[in-house]
Amino acid sequence: MADEALFLLLHNEMVSGVYKSAEQGEVENGRCITKLENMGFRVGQGLIERFTKDTARFKDELDIMKFICKDFWTTVFKKQIDNLRTNHQGIYVLQDNKFRLLTQMSAGKQYLEHASKYLAFTCGLIRGGLSNLGIKSIVTAEVSSMACKFQVMIQKL
Amino acid sequence: MAVCVAVIAKENYPLYIRSVPTENELKFHYMVHTSLDVVDEKISALGKALVDQRELYLGLLYPTEDHKVYGYVTNSKVKFVMVVDASNTALRDNEIRSMFRKLHNSYTDVMCNPFYNPGDRIQSRAFDSMVTSMMIQVC
């Protein structure tokens, strides 16, 4: 990522573009968020292929999650995940205290409601990366004034 | 110089398979198919002692009387299988590794193409020309 401002601006435009192109009568936000998430999914698949080209094979699931928290997050957002928690039964919570895509927004309460639109792409990114590594998961995100938390639920088949 | 190159998806169906056209292609397809069992055995956690678990290159899978089969697995569980002529003894391990590296690089480029859906057959011309450069030139 040569210049992170470029990606930030593109991402903001992407979100507003998807919402503008939705039909007039379509009040529910669900479909737009799904579109953004699917975009992130495809990008995540390609990105992971490129990043894992030279790394050694992963031992287990925790190894993969650690890779996502350190190398993947550093390459995309120039910082690591601040906190990774797990219940060892397939649920991981990744906490980022200063999420790059949201730092430009002020922390007022009315803005926080709309923050979920801006997190959809990143949720898709994580889901796409994991799916290419062989892990089916559901990724959700929530934001509070302090931090962003991405919750990953691994689906055991 | 390879005689047959195959890219197998993680669900074990071929994404790309190409062999030297003069010989019976079905025989190579069959060889690639049987080598998948050997690949699975090598990447499973049970066979710890045999192969360094952290490496992507799997090495010689099995030799037959005229051919040798080599394998490579990516982190996304996509397998590359290459069949070479056994009479070509000048081919060293390093060369095989570099051929697999080139394959992996081209595969990554195909994956990042937004018009490519993961799971489809690979139809990229750049990929084709890279594989042609690795196969035996048949005049």
UniProtKB/TrEMBL annotation, chain A:
Family membership noted in the UniProt record: Belongs to the TRAPP small subunits family. BET3 subfamily.
Q: Where in the cell is it found?
A: Endoplasmic reticulum; Golgi apparatus, cis-Golgi network
Which keywords does the record carry? Endoplasmic reticulum, Golgi apparatus, Neurogenesis
> What's this protein's name?
Trafficking protein particle complex subunit 6B
Please name the gene that encodes this protein.
Answer: TRAPPC6B
Q: Does the keyword Manganese apply?
A: no
Description of how the protein assembles with itself and partners = Homodimer. Part of a TRAPP complex. Heterodimer with TRAPPC3. The heterodimer TRAPPC6B-TRAPPC3 interacts with TRAPPC1 likely providing a core for TRAPP complex formation.
Organism (species): Loxodonta africana (African elephant)
Q: Which GO terms describe its cellular component?
A: cis-Golgi network; endoplasmic reticulum; trans-Golgi network; TRAPP complex
TrEMBL record, chain B:
Cross-referenced CDD domains: TRAPPC2L
Q: What's a single GO BP term from this record? A: endoplasmic reticulum to Golgi vesicle-mediated transport
The answer to whether keyword Endoplasmic reticulum applies is: yes
Q: Which Pfam families match?
A: Sedlin_N
User: Is-annotated flag, keyword Cytoplasm?
Assistant: yes
Where is the protein situated, by its record's location annotation? Cytoplasm, Perinuclear region; Endoplasmic reticulum; Golgi apparatus
InterPro entries linked to this entry: Longin-like_dom_sf (IPR011012), Sedlin (IPR006722), TRAPPC2L (IPR044760)
What's the chief localization of this chain? cytoplasm
Q: Which UniProt keywords apply?
A: Cytoplasm, Endoplasmic reticulum, ER-Golgi transport, Golgi apparatus, Transport
Q: Which SUPFAM superfamilies match?
A: SNARE-like
Question: Domain of life of the organism in this record?
Answer: Eukaryota
Write down any Gene Ontology CC term.
cytosol
Similarity comment: Belongs to the TRAPP small subunits family. Sedlin subfamily.
Q: What is this protein called?
A: Trafficking protein particle complex subunit 2-like protein
Kindly list the organism's lineage.
Eukaryota, Metazoa, Chordata, Craniata, Vertebrata
